[in-house]
Each structure stands twice: as structure tokens, then as C-alpha cells.
Write a structure and sequence with these properties.
With 110 residues, the protein is α+β, with helices and mostly antiparallel strands. Helices cover 31% and strands 16% of the residues. The chain has a three-stranded antiparallel β-sheet with strand order 3-5-4, with helices on both faces. Strand 4 and strand 5 form a beta hairpin. The chain is globular, with a radius of gyration of 14 Å. The protein starts with 6 loop residues before the first helix and ends with a strand.
Length: 110
Amino acid sequence: QVGDMACEATALLEALHNKGYANNYNIQSFIKTMPISPNGNPNEGFGGGYQRVTYGIFQSIYPEPLAKWGSRFGNVQNISGSSPTDLQSQLLNGNPVVGLPLNMVIISGV
């Protein structure tokens, strides 16, 4: 186990694996590449630590830095604001969609 707050990293890695990307990574090695925001701002990287819940700290990474991180390993796009029809289309095309509260990131083919 890598930590209590590793949801985004785990979902991203599984989506990347689904498309054949980052196959030489497991969650333990992948999460070490995650950008961490030095000031806890999830717009810049993961806010806080992923190892355990820290009360009073918003521990997450927002879609833009998540997609930027994922792009190091494959074709990843921030599709926040997409309509349900657009999301359905991505899924029907075989592209995994990582859903974060109110935001989405897509991992698509080459």
C-alpha cells in the first residue's frame, strides 16, 4: 500500500495501463513521480502528503496538473467541463476517463 490519499495516482496509473502506457511502473514507483506542491496548492501538484490523511489540509491534485503529469507517460488530456455525451463518446472509443470530483481527465490512444 502506498498511502491513504493515493486515489488520483492509482486511478491515473490504471487508466494509463489500460491504454498500454507506463507498463514498467507499479503504484509504488509511479507515485514517486507525482508532482507535489510545496505550498499545498492542488493547482500546482498534489497538495499535502499522500501517505495518510492530514486533517485541515486539502489533499488532492487538480485535473490540469494531473493531466500534465500523466502526459509524461502517454496521451492524457484534461477534459473538465465535457458533456455527458462527450464522456460517453470517449468511453465508447475505448478511452478510460479518470473522474475526480466535478472534473475529468482522459487517457486516449496514440
